[in-house]
Design goal:
By secondary structure, the protein is mainly α. It is about 65% helix and about 5% strand. The chain folds into two domains: about 5-125, Orthogonal Bundle (Rna Polymerase Sigma Factor, Chain: A), CATH 1.10.1740.10; about 135-205, Orthogonal Bundle (Arc Repressor Mutant, subunit A). Strands 1-2 form a two-stranded antiparallel sheet. Helix 4 (about 60-75) packs across helix 5, helix 4 (about 60-75) runs parallel beside helix 9 (about 185-205) and helix 7 packs across helix 9.
Length: about 210
């Protein structure tokens, strides 16, 4: 991957903060620089969390969705181009993922003309399209669930149980705590590690999902 190619990528239109984000993205993509990934997450974790909290009004779900947003963004990081700020791209992934979650839960907590601003002042409009799936879309969704379950089976038994309860049976954190007789803090910590393990497996399967 020639550095000559990079020299022709113009970032003049970006703010200083966005230019620095782009440097971090390049380090993460080209060198798998873990520090760059961590710094990107530190820079935006709180703002993503509070935006999602505003959308769904549930701290536990917002916490889950924040982790998912970064997981999806980091999996697609090679697709990011500096035509616009990294934060704009990241916020779009986070909001789209949240909309999918809202559709799935059939919660009517998001108005159709809701607008959010990211830290660079870009206004993002959230649009909810019809949640009705045709038979073909339902079949694809069922196939994905089967594939997801196959991937989950590769996790440690305890992690499998947590993912099953949280994402397939849709238990709350409190319900999982009661079901497994574990402190709430332990449930959250173990679910975080379970998701991390799942993301690593999904990276290898992402072309098939």
């Amino acid at each position: 991957m020639g550095s000559n190619e990079d020299e022709h990528i113009s970032t003049d239109h970006l703010s200083d903060k966005a230019k620095y984000d782009f440097i971090l993205v390049q380090r993460a993509v080209k060198s798998s620089d873990q520090q760059a990934f961590a710094e990107l997450m530190d820079r935006y974790r709180d703002s993503i969390f509070f935006m999602l909290l505003k959308m769904i009004n549930n701290r536990d779900d917002a916490d889950d969705l924040t982790i998912e947003a970064f997981g999806k963004a980091f999996n697609r990081l090679h697709q990011y181009t500096p035509n616009y700020a990294f934060s704009t791209w990241l916020f779009k992934i986070a909001t789209n993922n949240c909309i999918d979650f809202i559709r799935k839960k059939k919660k009517n907590v998001l108005s159709l003309d809701n607008r959010f601003e990211n830290e660079d002042g870009d206004s993002l409009m959230i649009e909810l399209k019809s949640g009705n799936r045709n038979p073909e879309e339902e079949a694809i969704r069922d196939q994905k669930i089967i594939m997801m379950r196959a991937i989950v089976k590769k996790l440690k038994p305890r992690y499998q149980e947590l993912i099953e309860l949280r994402y397939f049976k849709e238990f709350s954190y409190d319900e999982i705590s009661a079901e497994l007789n574990l402190p709430l803090g332990t449930v959250k910590a173990q679910l975080f590690r379970a998701r991390e393990s799942l993301y690593n497996l999904l990276k290898n399967a992402k072309d098939r999902i």
